[in-house]
TrEMBL record:
Source organism (scientific name): Marinobacter persicus
InterPro entries per record: HGPRT, PRTase-like, PRTase_dom
PANTHER family found in the cross-reference section: HYPOXANTHINE PHOSPHORIBOSYLTRANSFERASE, HYPOXANTHINE-GUANINE PHOSPHORIBOSYLTRANSFERASE
Pfam families xref list: Pribosyltran
Recorded coiled-coil stretches: none
Name of this protein: Hypoxanthine phosphoribosyltransferase
Ranges of residues in domain Phosphoribosyltransferase: 20-169
Classification lineage: Bacteria, Pseudomonadati, Pseudomonadota, Gammaproteobacteria, Pseudomonadales
Domain of life per record: Bacteria
Length: 185
């Protein structure tokens, strides 16, 4: 086995499972209900924030039983590190968002720098309103703005380095079927 696979198996074996698959499913179902109630008649333009937003978006979309225009964008500030840097746009949205209700979907609101920058970008490009949906809100006092919250939050999770359900550890384990915390982080 390659060194990387051995390392990643060990990371999983030693990780703490903070939220299991069933609990994540139920959180996503609740989010879908809340989003439906708020946006069913708004013709929303949904942006999946790649890469982390992929799993939540994929599980959320089929539960939204109303017309949704689904697109993606790619912005990153952690790359494969466990601390964040400057936001780098890898793919900016090209679709016309003028006067649209935009819903940004991502895996995690940690400090919130990523979501704030994407929301500002959408407003600058003419969106009428921008709402945000995250699977996880990490609990700490380092938010980019005091009391920063997403409009739709699945789970509140402790201040550890997390992986699973879209969140990666060094590019791996986005596929982990639950929310896990890396040992010692
Ligand atoms: O709230 P913040 O502190 O800004 O962090 C949250 C962001 O960090 C992760 O992205 P990352 O930059 O790791 O890219 P990825 O989506 O490819 O994992 C995550 O997907 C969020 O977009
Ligand atoms: N994978 C991962 N990405 C993050 N981006 C910001 N916080 C986190 C985290 O805890 N885990």
């Amino acid at each position: 086995m390659s060194d990387t696979v051995t390392e990643m198996n060990q990371v999983m074996a030693e990780a703490d499972c903070l939220v299991n698959e069933q609990q994540v499913h139920s959180a996503i179902e609740t989010m879908a209900g809340e989003i439906t109630e708020r946006l069913h008649d708004r013709n929303p333009l949904l942006f999946c924030v790649m890469n982390g937003g992929l799993i939540l978006t994929g599980q959320l979309l089929p539960q939204l039983k109303f017309p949704v225009q689904a697109e993606y964008l790619h912005a990153t500030r952690y790359r494969q590190e466990t601390t964040g840097g400057i936001l780098e746009w890898k793919l900016r949205p090209e679709v016309d968002m003028k006067d649209r209700t935009v819903l940004i979907v991502d895996d995690i609101l940690d400090e919130g720098t990523t979501l704030c920058a994407i929301a500002d970008y959408c407003l600058t490009h003419g969106a009428r309103e921008v709402l945000t949906a995250v699977l996880v809100d990490k609990q700490h006092e380092r938010k980019a703005r005091p009391d920063l919250k997403a409009d739709f939050t699945g789970l509140e999770v402790e201040d550890r380095f997390l992986f699973g359900y879209g969140m990666d550890y060094k590019g791996y384990w986005r596929n982990a079927p639950g929310i896990y915390a890396v040992k010692g982080l």
